[in-house]
């Protein structure tokens, strides 16, 4: 398992894997609902459309594909990146943003299958992208150890956040848009002020590289996962560690919060997905 995402209403999850497929699951029963096939290389990630009627996947075959949930059929194919795609996010029902090993961020019009904007500035692989809650900014992180904030309208870079000493694995924007969190191979989580770009807090506690970190919907806590096989909770104001979840037998690759923050899905190199209440 490489990636897992909740549907907007929390009733389904989509997963993708090394077997080149995307699978749709019912959360309550755990039953597989649908299988989407078509990628020519392993599928690196998946995301639901804002209305939950479609799934979009991205792959090392350098393509982005959109699928209809009910029929299981591919309804769109986007090409343009020259290397593997690491992440995508919806900007709106008609637009999405992607990032790649080719060092670029691209904005696409889905209906026309056309690339409408190209953002360049990172000096190495762009690994993750996130959209600010008001839809005006893109936040990206890279193998070049930086986080960058971009204005969507102009495509210009607004700020450059520096401090990590190794590859930045993940970035997330707080629900109120005022803070950014990043996590890194340097075993730290950093909290930044979105407006000024200043580092607010430095969180330490994991004993290996940190692979993902996300804000809770209530904006009071952060959850992180690591190659040390643990999931940890942190207080957003003090930076103190609140809780440790243990159970995975190998590194925890990623985490997903349910829309209301009541459940956490974690997926690991131990080949399991775990649900935490």
UniProtKB/TrEMBL annotation:
Database matches in PANTHER family: TRANSCRIPTION INITIATION FACTOR TFIID, TRANSCRIPTION INITIATION FACTOR TFIID SUBUNIT 5
PROSITE patterns assigned: WD_REPEATS_1, WD_REPEATS_2, WD_REPEATS_REGION
Gene source species: Reticulomyxa filosa
InterPro entries for this protein: WD40/YVTN_repeat-like_dom_sf (IPR015943), WD40_PAC1 (IPR020472), WD40_repeat_CS (IPR019775), WD40_repeat_dom_sf (IPR036322), WD40_rpt (IPR001680)
Keyword hit for Kinase: no
CDD domains in the cross-refs: WD40
Protein name according to UniProt: Uncharacterized protein
RNA-binding in keyword set: no
């Amino acid at each position: 398992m490489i990636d897992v995402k909740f549907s907007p209403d929390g009733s389904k999850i989509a997963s993708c894997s090394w077997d080149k497929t995307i699978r749709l699951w019912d959360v309550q029963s755990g039953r597989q609902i649908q299988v989407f096939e078509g990628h020519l290389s392993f599928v690196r990630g998946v995301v639901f459309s804002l209305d939950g009627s479609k799934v979009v996947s991205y792959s090392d075959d350098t393509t982005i594909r959109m699928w209809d949930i009910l029929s299981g059929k591919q309804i769109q194919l986007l090409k343009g990146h020259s290397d593997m795609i690491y992440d995508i996010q919806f900007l709106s029902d008609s637009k999405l943003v992607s990032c790649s090993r080719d060092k670029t961020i691209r904005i696409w019009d889905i209906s026309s299958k056309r690339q409408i904007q190209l953002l360049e500035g990172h000096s190495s692989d762009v690994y993750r992208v996130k959209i600010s809650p008001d839809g005006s900014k893109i936040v990206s992180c890279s193998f070049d150890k930086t986080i960058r904030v971009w204005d969507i309208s102009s495509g210009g870079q607004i700020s450059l956040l520096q401090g990590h000493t190794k590859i930045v694995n993940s970035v997330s924007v707080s629900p109120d848009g005022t803070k950014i969190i990043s996590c890194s191979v340097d075993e730290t989580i950093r909290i930044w002020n979105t407006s000024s770009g200043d580092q607010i807090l430095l969180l330490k506690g994991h004993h290996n590289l940190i692979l993902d970190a996300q804000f809770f919907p209530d904006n009071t806590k952060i959850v992180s996962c690591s190659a040390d096989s643990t999931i940890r909770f942190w207080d957003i104001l003090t930076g103190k560690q609140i809780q440790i979840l243990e159970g995975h037998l190998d590194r925890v690759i990623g985490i997903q919060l349910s829309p209301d923050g009541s459940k956490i899905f974690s997926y690991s190199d131990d080949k399991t997905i775990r649900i935490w209440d």
